[in-house]
Each structure stands twice: as structure tokens, then as C-alpha cells.
Design a protein that fits this description.
10 strands; globular; alpha/beta; 28% helix; 5 helices
Length: 180
């Protein structure tokens, strides 16, 4: 089966949150998915968790262990290893809804889009409060990326959700639930 989406999870010292993230990716309804976990030189139990998921579900998970270089280089290592037509990114302390990547791929293919974004739901653990952030309220199916960056609630650069462009590769950026 050809991989449709390569999801890259950069992880540095995320042992408390990584299992929830990887389990949510394991539950995706999109079958043609690979998850590349980049352990960015973690000093806690993150590397062990990565290895456990790869050993138990080798058809879905791969891991790259590298010295600590930061999130950007870790994601770039994942991009280099990716086989998918689309790229997605999930932070190691976040989780995604089971149909998220199937919905994003269907939207990208229906609209012939090179970039697809979705909304974010923040969960404030301390106060048990939830907030939804819309990427582009009242948006149509097609929005110029310049418009998104200029006028949208730009989750792409807010520290919650951002995208990387790689020549010759389509990108699916992910939306997810996150703790604060």
C-alpha cells in the first residue's frame, strides 16, 4: 500500500505526553499512513516509548534517534525520511481526532489543494475549559495562502500549528487538541 500521509512527530523529553499522541495517531481511520517519530536527544523515557511503539506497530511507526538539535531540524529529519504524498506534523504533547487525516486528505484531493489546514481545540487541563480556534472563520474551500497568513487566525505561526513547505511535496498540516 502506498503511503498517503507521513506524519512527523518531533519529540524532546515528552515521556508524559507521547503515549497519548502516538495512540491517537494509531487510531487514525486513514490506513495509508506512516508516523515518523524523531527523538531529538531526549534524556527522559521518550526514546524508550518511541522504540516500544515501533516494535509493537512496525507497519505504522518508525523512529529516528538523533542528538538534540531543536524542533526545526528534528522535523527536517522526519521530512527527509518521509514516503508519503502529503506531510503532516503533530507535536508530541498533542493528540488528534481519529478521522483528522482522512478528512484532510479528502479535502486536499477534492479541492486540488497543496496545503490543507484545520482548526485547533485547546484544552486547559487546570480549569477543565475548552476553546476552539478557527483557522479561517467563514472561509470557502479555496483560500490564497497569502490571505490565510495575512488575515486568518494564523495557527501556523502561533506556536500551536505551523507548516513547512518542501519543493515537490504536498503538505497536510494538522490541527489537534493540545494541553496548556
Amino acid at each position: 500500500m502506498q503511503v498517503q500521509v507521513s506524519v512527523i512527530v518531533a519529540a524532546y523529553n515528552e515521556e508524559h505526553w507521547l503515549r497519548r499522541c502516538l495512540t491517537s495517531l494509531k487510531k487514525q481511520t486513514l490506513a495509508a499512513l506512516e508516523v515518523i517519530i524523531v527523538d531529538d536527544g531526549s534524556t527522559d523515557g521518550t526514546a524508550t516509548i518511541c522504540d516500544q511503539y515501533c516494535a509493537r506497530w512496525p507497519h505504522l511507526f518508525r523512529v529516528i534517534h538523533q542528538r538534540n538539535q531543536g524542533q526545526g531540524p528534528a522535523r527536517n529529519a522526519g521530512i527527509t525520511a518521509a514516503h508519503g504524498r502529503y506531510l503532516g506534523f503533530v507535536d508530541a504533547d498533542d493528540w488528534v481526532e481519529p478521522t483528522m487525516y482522512a478528512t484532510l486528505v479528502a479535502t486536499a484531493e477534492r479541492s486540488h489543494a497543496q496545503i490543507v489546514v484545520c482548526d485547533v481545540r485547546k484544552i486547559y487541563a487546570a480549569t477543565h475549559r475548552t476553546t476552539s480556534l478557527l483557522s479561517l472563520p467563514d472561509a470557502t474551500d479555496h483560500v490564497a495562502i497569502a490571505t490565510y497568513l495575512k488575515y486568518g487566525l494564523n495557527n501556523a505561526y502561533s506556536g500551536i500549528n505551523y507548516m513547512h513547505v518542501r519543493v515537490g511535496r504536498n503538505i497536510v498540516t494538522s490541527g489537534w487538541s493540545t494541553r496548556i
